[in-house]
Amino acid sequence: MTIVSVPDSPLTPGPELIKACQKGDRQGFQQLYHHYHQRVRSTLYQLCGELALDDLEQEVFLRVWQSLPQLRKVNYFSTWLYRITWNVAMDHRQRLGKHRQDQQSLMAQAQGTQGGRSNGGGELLQIHYQDLVQRGLEQLTWEQRSVVVLHDLRDLPQKEIAQILQIPVGTVKSRLFQGRKNLHRSLREEGVQL
Amino acid sequence: MKHSHFPDSPQENEKLVAFLRRHEPQGPPIATDHQDQLLHRVTRAPQFQPQRSRKWWIIPTAILIGGGLWWGWQRSSSWIPVGDRLAPQTVAIQTMTAEETAALEAFLVSSWQGVLETDSTTDLDDPLLDFERLYYLD
Predict the structure, then answer these.
(1) Do B47 and A24 touch (CB under 8 A)?
(2) For chain A, where are the E strands, in sequence order?
(3) Looking at chain B, which terminus has fewer C-beta neighbours within 10 angstroms, N or C?
(4) CA atoms within 13 Å, Cβ hemisphere of B117
């Protein structure tokens, strides 16, 4: 299986596009989807793993589409979108229960690895490191993982993460510190030298 | 016990973040046909239109109820007992007979006498009086 990173469109959708979508513009929503879907999908994958990824992505964009008319400040669309993404991931986590999710995630990973991701040395190494990062993320607590994913992988500022998760900025900082510390340890234990 | 070494320096953080971004787990890509189906399903769903606040009626209703209660209280406080019924104060004053006035005066005098008479069992200078009021009588 080849992992393809679909680059986001360089132009951020403006308020006009979001306002059009609020009025039911389906074509406009397709543009919105194509701009954000890879980020949403990656975030969901990093938070929840591979299982039910398509369904979760659909759930996020369904909630976005349905609730868009209720969004008052279109400039906060990105923050709002990540909050929905996090809520969907959180709901999924609660539905499954942590133990069951971990088991299924490991099974899915094992199947994915057996499914033939290897296509050459460099790519194999990249997949290996991606798996290490994913496993390291899974070993973090949910709270730490959420902050590390949003801050270090989505590159969101701490203030915005505080808004998304509805926690103080100080809590974001402490979770980020602990999360990085645990991730660092996890990678070192796997033999990764940073 | 093995302790992990995590120097919280900006350089170490940068290295970690760079590694994470370079090897960011992407997850399997969504199939194109599935993407189309997703968009089709999503955009066919009805949108939730913002509802106008249904609380707009609370303030005028509260004013009306408050006004009604105030009016009722004003009315009831201006009624006094006359015999075994209530009557508006103005009407009662006009219709009060000489016997009723005398009875009212006698009632007031007897009530105030009780207040002015000294109770022999109560010593107002007793230092424990306030103590008892505070700790036992309340």
Answers:
(1) yes
(2) none
(3) N
(4) 9
Average pLDDT score over chain A: 85
What's the mean pLDDT in A91-113?
A: 66
Residues 138-167 of A with CB under 8 A from B: 148, 152-153
Question: What's the one-letter identity of residue B120?
Answer: S
**CB of A114 within 8 Å of any CB in chain B?**
no
Q: Among residues A43, A52, A55, which one has the least CA distance to residue A104?
A: A52
* Cross-strand partners of B79: B88
SS3 B87: strand
Tell me: pLDDT of B133 over 70. no
Of the candidates A53, A80, A76, A47, the residue with the CA atom closest to the CA atom of residue A65:
A80
Residues A26, A66, A155, B31: what is their CA dihedral angle, to the nearest 10 degrees? -60
Q: Which residues from chain A sit within 8 angstroms of residue B49, using beta carbons? A: 69-70
The pLDDT tens digits for B5-55 are: 566 788 888 999 999 999 999 888 888 888 888 899 998 999 988 776 666
* Residue A25, token pair as written in the block: 């513009």
* Phi and psi angles of residue B117, each rounded to the nearest 5 degrees, phi first: -70, 140
**CB contacts, 8 Å: B39 with chain A:** 29-30, 33, 61
Chain B positions touching A184 (Cβ under 8 A) are: 4, 6, 12, 16
Q: Say how many residues make up chain B.
A: 138
Chain A, nearest residue to B18 by Cα: A152
State the DSSP code for A168.
Answer: -
Rounded to two decimals, what is the model's pTM?
Answer: 0.64
